[in-house]
């Protein structure tokens, strides 16, 4: 029997933990107010990010690509009591609304929200990150990975989103953006500094554990 993607997503959402009320509102308002709401991690992937964060129990988290803050709030659920999450996004137009979500959350004093170019901001963060989530402009994913890998300790986890690119990584004649993702995946597959596996969650989530 062929499984329809929407039916599978619905099944997965109904067999995982519920979103809290704030996450439901972030989800709803993103779909009402944003032109590309599909960029939101969403219920199922959000619960995956939350669980992974709780397993790592990070003291420091780095997120590159905040969007409307849904994944940020999910990742923050695993922070240690004195933990801090740094999240970076280039879109200043969303800042007031997204900061409002963070201020309403239980993690208001744990989230440092940076607006600007990640390539400029990253060198200013003199931190060691136990968990990193990369979900920004795809053409710079390899740059982000190489920039932060030395700031991740042994046992730390790096997550990179959208590495299956709607299945286009299997195309016989991929377009240029798909080629960049194929190249990223190939390079990471050969990187001896990390243990790695691609999880076929939504658009593909690369999980890399620093050796």
From TrEMBL:
PROSITE patterns to which the protein is assigned, alphabetical: SAM_OMT_I
Pfam families linked: Methyltransf_3 (PF01596)
Record keywords, A-Z: Methyltransferase, Transferase
Highest taxon above the source species: Bacteria
GO biological process terms, semicolon-separated: methylation
GO molecular function: O-methyltransferase activity; S-adenosylmethionine-dependent methyltransferase activity
PANTHER family assigned: CAFFEOYL-COA O-METHYLTRANSFERASE 3-RELATED, O-METHYLTRANSFERASE-RELATED
Name this protein carries in UniProt: Methyltransferase
Organism listed in the record: Sphingobacterium siyangense
